[in-house]
């Protein structure tokens, strides 16, 4: 039992200290799920279901209840002598229950339902379009954190190298090979490194907190940000949600045209009315009676002064406007893609040059190390060369991250 308990503690410790990690794709997914705007998709869906129910009610029987009581100053009399017909009462009463059933309306109800379905898709796609710019915001934050991580590693390497050199210098001072104050210069540089660590950490915490708020997911400072390997494909076509939105807007216009075309279609309705009143349908019977009527009605708006036609012409103009907006969007997007292609090529050229510079810096630093060890140069001269190498390595790291960022933004702009 004791051994089982020990194993449990070990497993719990390992699991609790396991380093959490996150990827760029996970950030994309989380912001689409958790950003407050994303909730509008479900709200639009619920709203459209209610609209469906309202429109569909047109196919169901429509009931109405009416009641009327009146008193009139005069009534109809039969001007025939010796006819035993009582005149109507001046106070009259009537209550009726009517039922109307739509039989045919040219498919107007189904067209309205189809229009609502397209409008729902348009609204939900608009939400996606509004969320899409967040991808580039995430790219900026994510790769800034990666850059901070890489700079931290480089600073650690510089610190380790300085600490080792500080020990060598102290040994040289002890044996009189190196000037006594040389170790103080290295100590001062190590203190500066500690300040740089603090600045890097503060900046990293701010970036992580901002990203965490954006994706509504807790991220700690121990979270490992995976460095993605991003590839770009220049040959692929644009696949942005805006293009889908433009297409859906045109479909919405086409469905609106369908609704308008059926607006003036002939309509058939069946009706039935039952009632109780005085008088009833027999106006000569001056008593309370029950009565009913059944039948069908026909309605056709034959001429509307071309109002319907003008509305459809207006919708066609809207479709042309959307086509223009589509062309403008494609033009601006392709210009932006071209700029990012140049940025990618520039970063690749910089990286190639950075590697050559670093190789030369390493040779210079190697020579400076030997000179410092033999007391030929001061510690300050060595620190200068070490800092030059460190700065160039930082530049290389920055250019690599900028290259990945440019590729990620390129893919985002293209819709990949």
UniProtKB/TrEMBL annotation:
Sorted alphabetically, which keywords does the UniProt record give? Cell outer membrane, Membrane, Signal, Transmembrane, Transmembrane beta strand, Transport
In terms of InterPro entries, this protein maps to: OMP_efflux (IPR003423), TolC-like (IPR051906)
One Pfam family hit: OEP
Which first-to-last residue range defines the signal peptide?
1-18
Q: Where in the cell is it found?
A: Cell outer membrane
Carries keyword Transport?
A: yes
Where does this protein chiefly localize?
Answer: membrane
Protein family per UniProt: Belongs to the outer membrane factor (OMF) (TC 1.B.17) family.
Q: Which named protein is this?
A: TolC family protein
Give the species this sequence originates from: Lacinutrix gracilariae
């Amino acid at each position: 039992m004791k051994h089982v308990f020990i194993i449990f503690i070990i497993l719990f410790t390992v699991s609790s200290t396991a380093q959490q990690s996150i990827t760029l794709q996970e950030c994309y997914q989380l912001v689409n799920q958790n950003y407050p705007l994303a909730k509008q998709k479900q709200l639009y869906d619920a709203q459209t279901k209610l609209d469906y129910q309202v429109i569909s009610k047109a196919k169901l029987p429509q009931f109405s209840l009416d009641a009327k009581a009146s008193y009139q100053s005069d009534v109809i009399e039969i001007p025939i002598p010796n006819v035993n017909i009582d005149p109507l009462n001046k106070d009259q009463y009537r209550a009726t229950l009517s039922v109307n059933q739509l039989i045919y309306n040219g498919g107007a109800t189904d067209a309205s339902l189809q229009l609502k379905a397209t409008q729902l898709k348009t609204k939900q796609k608009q939400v996606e379009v509004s969320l899409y710019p967040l991808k580039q915001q995430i790219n900026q934050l994510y790769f800034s954190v990666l850059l901070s991580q890489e700079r931290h590693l480089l600073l650690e390497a510089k610190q380790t190298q300085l600490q080792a050199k500080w020990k060598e210098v102290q040994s040289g001072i002890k044996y009189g090979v190196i000037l006594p104050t040389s170790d103080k210069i290295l100590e001062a540089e190590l203190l500066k490194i500690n300040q740089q660590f603090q600045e890097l950490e503060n900046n990293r915490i701010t970036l992580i907190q901002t990203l965490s708020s954006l994706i509504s997911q807790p991220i700690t400072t121990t979270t490992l940000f995976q460095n993605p390997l991003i590839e770009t494909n220049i040959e692929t076509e644009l696949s942005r949600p805006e293009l889908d939105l433009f297409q859906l807007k045109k479909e919405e216009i086409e469905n609106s045209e369908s609704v308008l075309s059926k607006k003036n279609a002939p309509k058939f309705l069946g009706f039935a009315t039952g009632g109780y009143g005085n008088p009833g349908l027999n106006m000569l019977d001056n008593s309370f009676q029950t009565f009913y009527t059944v039948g069908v009605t026909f309605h056709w708006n034959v001429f509307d002064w071309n109002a319907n036609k003008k509305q459809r012409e207006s919708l066609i103009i809207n479709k042309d406007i959307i086509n223009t907006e589509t062309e403008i969007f494609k033009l601006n997007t392709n210009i932006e893609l071209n700029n990012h292609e140049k940025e990618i090529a520039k970063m690749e050229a910089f990286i190639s040059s950075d590697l050559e510079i670093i190789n030369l810096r390493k040779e210079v630093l190697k020579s400076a190390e030997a000179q410092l060890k033999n007391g030929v140069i001061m510690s300050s001269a060595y620190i200068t060369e070490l800092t030059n190498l460190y700065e160039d390595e930082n530049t290389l790291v920055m250019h690599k991250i900028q290259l990945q960022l440019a590729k990620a933004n390129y893919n985002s702009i293209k819709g990949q």
